[in-house]
Design goal:
It catalyses: L-histidyl-[protein] + phosphoenolpyruvate = N(pros)-phospho-L-histidyl-[protein] + pyruvate. Its main location: cytoplasm. Belongs to the PEP-utilizing enzyme family. It comes from Posidoniimonas polymericola. 46% of the residues lie in helices and 11% in strands. The longest helix is centred in the middle third of the chain and has 21 residues. Strands 7-6-5-4-3-2-1-8 form an eight-stranded parallel beta sheet. The model has no long low-confidence stretch (mean pLDDT 94). The protein is built from 16 helices and eight strands. Helix 4 packs parallel to helix 6 and helix 6 crosses helix 7. By secondary structure, the chain is an alpha/beta fold. It is globular. It binds phosphoenolpyruvate (PEP) and magnesium ion.
């Protein structure tokens, strides 16, 4: 099987009826860019930039950010690199600038909220991303957006950083694409409005599941409730894809769900054409994409959308997957 998967490296992730699926990689460390290329992945769909904070003692300098981002952008020349801005707090606890005792860290000052509170820190990162963007393949993505105001504030900090660089005569990609993660149910409900404000979306199921079902993603005691196969989660995913499609905005998925072959047919059937996963998962996803047709996937999605429990959903998806192993 390993050999069969390796031989797929240079083949497209194309369904039997000729529909192209974009396979992207999720990475945390610049060194992982090479792993993506080795597995025939067409770009980075999620670069988790927190590692600089988690590895460093204290705050990284603009130069440290810049070096890391430039390394990835250059390694991936010709392929898109979606750089997600700081997603610190809750499950990604670094040396926070001012760690506060929070009773509900996942509902607290994390991710974009923390970045907007510490604007200097945020601006430093944005400057570094912009400076690295001269390679023209970088895209910026804001995490955990829950309201339009929040998105607009993030975009304003970005516009400020651009203006500063311009005044300083520092080059950057003026047409850089700006997107957001869809990982809070409120963002799904407001998709039509967000479509007017961003260039692309990526669904983050790890958080979307947690916020939809009110289940802490890191709490073992409630782990049985935590599943991407929940019908409510699947409905929210469908709504997100339908809205983005209606507005002609690209949408991808970068949570764990997108890398699990169990869900591939469902996601294609719901209309998703781009999946971002750990590089290791990509060859198997590609094999699967190449063994199914879109009408088959749509039929599966249709049946799933009528189901009432994650147990039924998983049973059906397992049965369909087994037929294609
Ligand atoms: C997600 O929430 O699905 C996601 C991809 O982001 P993270 O796992 O880094 O929170
Ligand atoms: Mg997330």
């Amino acid at each position: 099987l390993a050999n069969r998967l390796t031989s797929l490296k240079d083949l497209p992730a194309e369904t039997t009826d000729g529909i192209q699926v974009q396979l992207l990689g999720n990475i945390e460390f610049p060194s992982e860019a090479q792993q993506c290329l080795d597995r025939g992945v067409n770009g980075i769909g999620l670069y988790r930039t927190e590692f600089l904070y988690l590895a460093n003692k204290g705050e990284p300098t603009e130069e440290e950010h810049y070096q890391a981002y430039r390394d990835v952008a250059e390694a991936m020349a010709g392929f898109p690199v979606v750089m997600r801005t700081l997603d610190l707090g809750a499950d990604k606890l670094p040396a926070l600038p001012d760690p506060e005792d929070e009773r509900n860290p996942f509902l607290g000052l994390r991710s974009i909220r923390l970045a907007l509170k510490h604007v200097d820190m945020f601006r430093t990162q944005l400057r570094a991303i912009l400076r690295a963007s001269v390679t023209k393949n970088i895209r910026i993505m804001f995490p955990l957006i829950s309201t339009l105001i929040e998105l607009r504030r993030a975009k304003m900090v970005l516009a400020d950083a651009m203006e500063d660089l311009e005044e300083e005569g520092v080059p950057f990609d003026r047409d850089i694409k700006v997107g957001m993660m869809v990982e809070v149910p409120s963002a799904v409900m407001m998709m039509d409005h967000f479509c007017d404000e961003v260039d692309f979306f990526s669904i983050g199921t790890n958080d979307l599941v947690q916020y939809t079902l009110a289940v802490d993603r890191s709490n073992k005691d409630v782990a049985s409730l935590y599943t991407s196969a929940d019908p409510a989660v699947i409905k929210l995913i469908k709504m997100s894809i339908d809205s983005a499609d209606a507005h002609g905005k690209p949408i991808s998925m970068c949570g764990q769900m997108s890398g699990n072959p169990l869900y591939t047919m469902l996601l294609l059937g719901l209309g998703l054409r781009s999946l971002s996963t750990t590089p290791a998962a990509a060859p198997e996803l590609k094999r699967l994409c190449r063994s199914v047709s879109i009408p088959e996937c749509e039929a599966v999605a249709q049946r799933v959308l009528e189901m009432e429990s994650s147990r039924d959903v998983k049973a059906l998806l397992r049965e369909e997957l087994l037929k294609r192993l």
